[in-house]
Give the backbone structure.
Amino acid sequence: MSAQSKALLSTYDDVWLLDGVRTPFIEYNTALGLVSATDLGIKAAREVFRRSAVAPSDVDIVVAGNVAQTSFDAYVLPRHIALYSGVPLEVPAQLVQRVCGTGIEAILQAADAIKLGKAHVGLAVGAESMSRNPIAAYTHRSGFRMGQVEFKDFLWEALLDPSCNLTMGGTAEKLAKQYGITREEVDQFAAESFERAIAAQKRCFLSGEIAPVVTEEFELKGYASRGIKLPRGTEKLSEDTHVRPSALEVLSKLKPAFGGVQTGGNSSGIVDGAAAALVASGAYVRKQEKTPLARVVAGAVVGVPPDIMGISPAPAIQNLLNVGGLKLSDIDRVEINEAFGAQVLACQHELGLDRAKLNVNGGAIAIGHPLAATGIRLAVTVARELKHSNMRYGVASACIGGGQGIALLVENASVGNS
């Protein structure tokens, strides 16, 4: 797909990704199943302050992302994440929602505020409880009519895009047909995602971005306390639980989920989790003598047809490279969210992308995809991978239900400014 004139583009000269961290991503309906997205977000935010040694009082803006409202206090999720992580009462907080691109959008909005001179430090958070998606009804405010009581599973129903009458999985199946992608290819891709994630787990790469979760209380002077309570017998959660040995012969036996090449084994894992990152101005970095993780170089958001929404990282990345003045060959590492295996393979084909550069530590098929948290994970993971491999440029990107795509370009702080 060609670059688009209507793409929303942004560039940054002196904006930095200071640090980032996430909770482990935990299989839904298990150990984090009763924990609210707000508390997961508070945990991630507290940990990014601890790891970076940035004082919460230095924060000027809080941008929190959340897709599914999964608690009755969801309206104030950004505000509570800010307050209970120690950000001053005077600092405003806002919610962003760009579905699976929400985490990257949170980083871009924090970066925009810094570029405009409105802030020096921004806290970006993405938090999602897939387990707490409600069984909902939207038409019963005035009562029930005989035979028309209709409660539905929000987690499942939200996968349908009524504009094209396709589920998100159905859009991946359409791409599989369009690009001639076979079931075997998708299963092979998924098996490799699991293999890479297991390897990253074993060499402690993934643990480097994970803050273990324990039962704890979050206090706020003068206000009610809140916190995280793990199930009895669970003292600590420190690893992603969807990562597991998943051989090709096992994956190939799973039934199709959408009538084609996609199955539960080669689609993104359903997990609960949160992630947080700190974005800062160059003036702050230099004054505080901080060593940032990466420079935030550029961002791109595009629209594509809803029925092939999964191809959107390709034009998003193409636009990103154009605005950044780079070629794909200049990019050392690429993260494309693995919403569906066929969708990522279609993007790889469209871009002509070397698989050796793509999702080298595994992706959402293995690690899981807590919607709003994923984009921050992708950004932090690719920045950490650049630092680990002593490489320069990395891209984090994601497809977005409804027909959008988003991409973020980062530069290794050490290599790019040595």
In short: The mean pLDDT is 97. The longest helix spans residues 183-202.
